Amino acid sequence: MVPWAGSVVLASQLLPPPLRPALPATLALDSPSALSWTAMKSTRRALFVLALLFPSVLAPLAAKDSPKKYLLYVGTYTEKDSKGIYAFRYDAASGELTPAGLAAETTNPSFLAVDPSHRFLYAVNEVSKYNDAASGAVSAFAIDPPRGKLTLLNQLPSRGADPCYVSLDKTGKYVLVANYAGGSAAVFPVLQDGRLGDSSAFIQLVGSSVNHERQAGPHAHWIETTADNRFVVIADLGADQLHVYRFDPVHGALGENDPGFAALDRGAGPRHVAFHPNGKAAYVVNELNSTVTSFSYDPRRGAFSPLHTVSTLQPNFSGKNSTAEIHVHPNGKFLYVSNRGDDSITVFALDPAHGTLMTVDRVSSQGKTPRNFEIDPTGTRLFVANQATGNIVVFAIDAKTGKLTPTGQVLQVPAPVCLKFVPVD
To answer: Distance (Å, rounded) from C-alpha 254 to C-alpha 191?
Structure first.
């Protein structure tokens, strides 16, 4: 008998009868005495071995303990009918969605971020002037899960005009903001009560590119830390670059890195970045030329190396289009991109080992100007925010092909531009 067979048998007996696996013949015990005391005394070891050999058996138990109910927060533009951030209740098991109304009244909360503890939500207020200064704002809210309401904690200038993206570092101790028109980025510490402290770091980008209308100067459009929290990456639409800085998670400081940037094709207009779950590949959606560029990523150096660029559009498309959002499916097999103009979602199959992308589907967004979209926490549905038509359309995701099918569920929200899920159970 193999030396760890006793651990496997013990672990299998810890499961309820319907989930007990049939053991391979090579692990069958010759006699009860074969189950040694050494194996029996280590329940933790036994479960570990079972997890390695029978992951599909333990999956139902893990799924049973995972959250099933969520709040879906919607950031909007408030120039016309919207008043701020809206909320819906979402039952991931049944797919049921229930309106929870206006969660917080605030100006142009165009992008949202939720802290790792799910207690606080942060929003950029995408305006050119705040308190008579050439700056937008960033707002901190406390989340009230029972009601879905958001309570404003404080609001600070973002240190640049038209902030368009907000995220948190992996510890949840710092908020990062990209200022589009200002061409800058700032870092803010999160205080113990969720409020934002004075900025701990500020970067003013420089540079331009070939599109004189959209790239006369730098335009920070995305900012996040890498998975290991060692680097901060900024997508600069104006200069066709990804800027890379070293991140100090103790002081919230940004420092120079070598290499300090990765270049995109001239006139591409990098907008957002999505990392592959393996941490070794990244994908950049380029707004101005409607393409996606895949990169290999070296986490030791914070270095990006371009591999492959593909169009998000059909070969015969002749209209105007700009891309918006990009996400990798949690299973790492598929990539999704939104097209504004073509008003579609393009689905790619991924080969992260070689950096290649293959188009497998392109579906109507069921509205106009699909801005942000979000894959639900279970990975089974994709929610698309159509800004111009004021609706959020829900699609089912085929786990084998990645293709999208409308579920028939449509939410009505004025000018939706950002979606974020928050677990509530």
So the answer is: 19
